[in-house]
């Protein structure tokens, strides 16, 4: 069952110019970003229909789309569930993600696509990623959302900057797959601070103008994720 905290995070979803199935996709992805939906959780059409006050047809369409993206699985007995992954599955996803992101970084450097204002923007995203942890007013779900959405935006910036749209589509789906598998990894400020520091090293490497340093910083960032998965 999905909990009834949708009202608390409804402001996180953008409804303008989105059809109903896109709204459902955003709704489910935001629940993943908050950590509210975890690996193996069931998604029941009637529950989503009641919470969003929409018919079940666009919900079915959204669930099919998320299934195609590898974020949900479906079985006749259990219905739609959030993806479950073991360490071998996660390692396989990383083995695909790392080369793709390195290709993207290489494209960006070869075409000199990064400007100083881009790096300033990445610094802002990185600072915003952990700023909410000093706020005692907002709850953990929203803190997780702020952390994860800024982390996604950080990586997504590079994907889009390269104009490599097919790689970007694959990487976005993989990001959510890995986030589902690692949702326990973001529960402490210590881990979040590590990600902040790793992002900072990537930004500093980009500022240096060295592709080799940037690829090395990115590889270390991914290696720390894999190590965290092993330790879970």
UniProtKB/TrEMBL annotation:
Signal peptide: none annotated. Gene3D superfamilies: GntR ligand-binding domain-like, Winged helix-like DNA-binding domain superfamily/Winged helix DNA-binding domain. InterPro entries: GntR_C, TF_FadR/GntR_C, Tscrpt_reg_HTH_GntR, WH-like_DNA-bd_sf, WH_DNA-bd_sf. GO terms for molecular function: DNA binding; DNA-binding transcription factor activity. PROSITE patterns: HTH_GNTR. It holds the Pfam family FCD. Keywords: DNA-binding, Transcription, Transcription regulation. Residues 18-85 form the HTH gntR-type domain. CDD domains: WHTH_GntR. SUPFAM superfamilies: GntR ligand-binding domain-like, Winged helix' DNA-binding domain. SMART domains: HTH_GNTR (SM00345). The keyword DNA-binding applies. It comes from the Bacteria. This is DNA-binding GntR family transcriptional regulator.
């Amino acid at each position: 069952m999905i909990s009834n905290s949708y009202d608390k995070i409804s402001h996180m979803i953008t409804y303008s110019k989105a059809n109903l199935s896109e709204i459902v996709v955003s709704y489910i992805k935001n629940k993943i970003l908050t950590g509210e939906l975890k690996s193996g959780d069931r998604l029941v059409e009637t529950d989503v229909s009641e919470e969003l006050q929409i018919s079940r047809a666009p919900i079915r369409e959204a669930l099919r789309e998320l299934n195609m993206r590898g974020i949900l699985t479906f079985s006749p007995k259990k219905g739609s569930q959030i993806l479950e992954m073991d360490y071998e599955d996660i390692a396989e996803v990383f083995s695909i993600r790392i080369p793709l992101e390195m290709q993207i970084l290489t494209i960006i450097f070869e075409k000199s696509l990064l400007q100083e204002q881009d790096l300033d923007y990445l610094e802002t995203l990185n600072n915003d990623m952990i700023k909410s942890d000093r706020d005692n007013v907002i709850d953990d779900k929203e803190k997780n959302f702020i952390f994860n959405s800024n982390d996604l935006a950080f990586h997504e910036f590079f994907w889009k900057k390269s104009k490599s749209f097919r790689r970007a589509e694959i990487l976005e789906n993989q990001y959510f797959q890995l986030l589902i598998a690692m949702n326990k990894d973001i529960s402490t400020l210590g881990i979040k601070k590590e990600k902040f520091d790793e992002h900072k090293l990537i930004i500093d490497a980009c500022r240096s103008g060295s592709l080799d340093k940037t690829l090395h910083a990115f590889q270390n960032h991914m290696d720390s994720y894999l190590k965290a998965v092993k330790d879970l």
